[in-house]
Amino acid sequence: MDYKQISTEIYNDVLAGENLGSLPSYIPELASVSKDKFGVFFFGLKEESFGIGDYQEKFSIQSIAKVLSMSLAYRELGADIWNRVNVEPSGTSFNSLVQLETDAGIPRNPLINAGAIVVCDILLSLFNDAPERFLNFVRHLANNSNIDYSKRIAESEKSVGYRNYALCYYLKSLGNIHNSPEEVLDFYFNLCSIEMTCEELAYTFSFLANDGITLHDNKTVLNNSFAKRVNAIMQTCGFYDESGEFAFRVGLPGKSGVGGGIAAVMPDHYSIVVWSPSLNAKGNSYRGMKFLEDFTTRTKISVF
Questions:
Q1: 157 is known to lie in a ligand binding site
Q2: Quick one: signal sequence residues (predicted)?
Q3: CA angle in degrees (0–180, nearest 5) for 185-131-105
Q4: What digits encode the pLDDT tens for the residues 247-261?
């Protein structure tokens, strides 16, 4: 199959169409990005890899990083992680406080804000140098020692992150945060600030298409069973309360971020990243969703 030709045709069609949605104005640094940016990178396990458009420009991966923090915590803690955070789709906004009260302080899944904050707390309890340990973990997955936190973006998010402060302190009051909320939130804001290109991020996620094994050094990051479960959580929870819609229209495990990125994988075949900063009403990239829907329709390959 000629993935490159199909992708180029879809890219040009989507580029020529409407670019609906808006930038996330509640995060100053993200609101200043051009909404016309549009990049795609396809990383094939057995096929040719290629990029289209702005695929070599760095962007803030935001919540996509939550898949990686979950993977590290899961690898270290095993099934005990699920005592602190659930694996159910949320069905509500990614920063819902109401749901936490209903569920007695156990977040629905690790990919919503409350769940990712709990995962940060878990990592802080596991490692004395958790932010550095996590960054090195990401650098290993990316095979790139230059991946880093963005102080600029982290400070921007921290300056307006009142809802995340509320979530963290509420979790603390319910007994599901064990460390200092300030320390947990600093780690969380840094985690979301990581910048990568589409190309870097597609390679980073390739281990989830390859049974949990990194391609450059053949190291097992997650065993096959754990990798399968991480992909399952992405499939059911990776797009907040639009996760069912993404499964229905695209049919790939994936994760979005409010920086406009979407990372998705087809196990045993490829990983793919699309970046377009303009977001739909649910906080997912408008062009990214459109591209991936057309991509799996044209290639006739998805998990279903």
A1: yes
A2: none
A3: 40
A4: 999 999 999 999 999
Structure pTM?
0.97
26 labeled part of a ligand binding site: no
> Is the distance from CB of 215 to CB of 43 less than 8 angstroms?
no
Contact of 18 with 245, CB cutoff 8 Å: no
Is residue 11 a contact partner of residue 53, using CB atoms and an 8 Å limit?
yes
Does 273 show up as a binding residue in the annotation?
A: no
Q: Where are the domains of the chain?
A: 3-299
Q: Tell me: the pLDDT tens digits for 39-52? A: 999 999 999 999 99
Annotated binding-site residue? 240: yes
- The CATH number fitting domain 3-299, selected from 3.40.980.10, 3.40.50.1820, 3.40.50.300, 3.40.710.10: 3.40.710.10
**Cβ proximity of 111 and 70 under 8 Å:** yes
**Is residue 113 a known part of a binding site?**
yes
Residue 203 annotated as binding site: no
